[in-house]
Amino acid sequence: MEGDRRAEAGSSSASRTLRDVLGSPTESGDDALVHERNAELDEEEVEGEEDEEVGADGFVPGPLIPLKEQLEKDKDDESLRRWKEKLLGCLEGELNGQMEPEVTFHSIGIVSEGCAETITPLPVADNQSCVLFILKEGSQYRLKLTFSVKHNIVSGLTYSNTVWKKGLQVDQRKGMLGTFAPQRGPYEHLLEEETTPSGSLARGIYLAKLKFEDDDKRCHLELDYYFEIKKR
């Protein structure tokens, strides 16, 4: 069912049209340690270490076209009309001509072997523990995201996830989520599987920054969060 609800990932194109889219942990004593280690993190050093933006290759996306306008095109093409109705027919009455897509992230979760799935609603509540999830050393895990898309197609949605420990960058992952059309229900997406490091030096609390951008370099989410690696 998840695959039916997800628009397929596609390569960047010169225009945005429908043809491009086929197809809580509780408070704990760990918080004091988080704040102490966060004080050690030099923001200027962190910002200097971040890599160049994804897709900084000179590509310039074509102009956005309101989805309502796209739906009104090719009305004489019966097969294309049926395809559009199947894809977006239930939303046609809700489109208001807004050109820019609106992507709202509802939750971030962790799926890991031998552990119960942990889901944290977004934005993170003020009284939420700073450590969003705990992982065992040497274990496989995947971040799980729930988000919705409104108003227009979001093209080339990418993510970057950068991790620091004691002020030093220890990992950075970048990837493509894909191109998504508006729909009433939310999308669910699992990021690529990762493996936590092992050993006494790997244990402890980490700071991470998760960022999502589209082809036009719109930032739809920038989230700072903490997680902890414990002994297996």
From TrEMBL:
<feature type="compositionally biased region" description="Acidic residues">
    <location>
        <begin position="41"/>
        <end position="55"/>
    </location>
</feature>
<protein>
    <submittedName>
        <fullName>Rho GDP-dissociation inhibitor 1</fullName>
    </submittedName>
</protein>
<dbReference type="GO" id="GO:0005829">
    <property type="term" value="C:cytosol"/>
</dbReference>
<dbReference type="GO" id="GO:0016020">
    <property type="term" value="C:membrane"/>
</dbReference>
<dbReference type="InterPro" id="IPR000406">
    <property type="entry name" value="Rho_GDI"/>
</dbReference>
<dbReference type="GO" id="GO:0007266">
    <property type="term" value="P:Rho protein signal transduction"/>
</dbReference>
<dbReference type="InterPro" id="IPR024792">
    <property type="entry name" value="RhoGDI_dom_sf"/>
</dbReference>
<comment type="similarity">
    <text>Belongs to the Rho GDI family.</text>
</comment>
<keyword id="KW-0343">GTPase activation</keyword>
<keyword id="KW-0963">Cytoplasm</keyword>
<dbReference type="GO" id="GO:0005094">
    <property type="term" value="F:Rho GDP-dissociation inhibitor activity"/>
</dbReference>
<dbReference type="GO" id="GO:0005096">
    <property type="term" value="F:GTPase activator activity"/>
</dbReference>
<feature type="region of interest" description="Disordered">
    <location>
        <begin position="1"/>
        <end position="76"/>
    </location>
</feature>
<dbReference type="InterPro" id="IPR014756">
    <property type="entry name" value="Ig_E-set"/>
</dbReference>
<dbReference type="Pfam" id="PF02115">
    <property type="entry name" value="Rho_GDI"/>
</dbReference>
